[in-house]
Amino acid sequence: MDAIVNKLPGKEENMLDDSNNKPTQAEAEEAVRTLLRWMGEDITREGLLDTPKRVVKSYSELFGGYEADPSDVLGRTFEEVAGYNDIVLVKDIHFHSHCEHHMVPIIGKAHVAYLPDERVLGLSKIARVVDIFARRLQTQETLTSQVATSIDETLAPRGVAVMIEAEHMCMAMRGVRKQGSTTVTTRFTGEFEKPENQYRFLEMLRH
Ligand SMILES: Nc1nc2c(ncn2[C@@H]2O[C@H](COP(=O)(O)OP(=O)(O)OP(=O)(O)O)[C@@H](O)[C@H]2O)c(=O)[nH]1
Ligand SMILES: [Zn+2]
């Protein structure tokens, strides 16, 4: 087979199927050189020689969420919680993402709660799920929904509540240039669709 073997940086064994048509590391670095030239830079100057390699390496980290599967993370649950069945809230989960329109950072925090149905999640797994989806190109609405849906579908709790507060650098650094504005999104499932549970969630966030 004459297919191009695409290798992910640092993951030599991880070959993707042809339909993904993932560019090679060399092609990605060349694309960075093209952008640098388009910006008016001299790509032969010393300070920029390793920049394409650094950018691609940095993108592998910033967009590492495409390679991660949230259900792997959420699969680890516990039952021994002495009958605890009230809200579990992890708040102020800081994240960095990038908007899919401009590929510019979205910086914010997520608050994630659920009402357990016998099983509970390791707390760090909630933050890991936020990170997996944040490390992809996003809209805030999609990120909010994806976090809620993945917990809902994998853990099958009585309900999930997600609130995200974030600043979009595409609104601060460019375009309309409004610094300091915060966008707030929420997604409620199951018993969190009831106003009294939404109220408790919001109250817990205030304290
Ligand atoms: N709903 C939503 N909009 C977003 C998000 N991130 C960025 N945007 C918006 O996406 C829109 C894209 O609008 P366009 O008119 O296609 O692009 P543009 O000319 O760059 O827009 P301006 O940012 O207004 O300069 C902008 O209004 C952005 O503020 C997000 O997470 N959710
Ligand atoms: Zn944007």
UniProtKB/TrEMBL annotation:
Residues 1-27 are annotated as: Disordered. Zn(2+) binds at C99, H102, C170. The keyword Transmembrane helix does not apply. One of its GO terms (cellular component) is cytoplasm. It catalyses: GTP + H2O = 7,8-dihydroneopterin 3'-triphosphate + formate + H(+). GO terms for biological process: one-carbon metabolic process; tetrahydrobiopterin biosynthetic process; tetrahydrofolate biosynthetic process. One of its GO terms (molecular function) is zinc ion binding. It comes from the Bacteria. Its EC number is 3.5.4.16. Pathway: Cofactor biosynthesis; 7,8-dihydroneopterin triphosphate biosynthesis; 7,8-dihydroneopterin triphosphate from GTP: step 1/1. Residues 29-204 form the GTP cyclohydrolase I domain. Keywords: GTP-binding, Hydrolase, Metal-binding, Nucleotide-binding, One-carbon metabolism, Zinc. Belongs to the GTP cyclohydrolase I family. Homopolymer. Toroid-shaped homodecamer, composed of two pentamers of five dimers. This is GTP cyclohydrolase 1. It comes from Ahrensia marina.
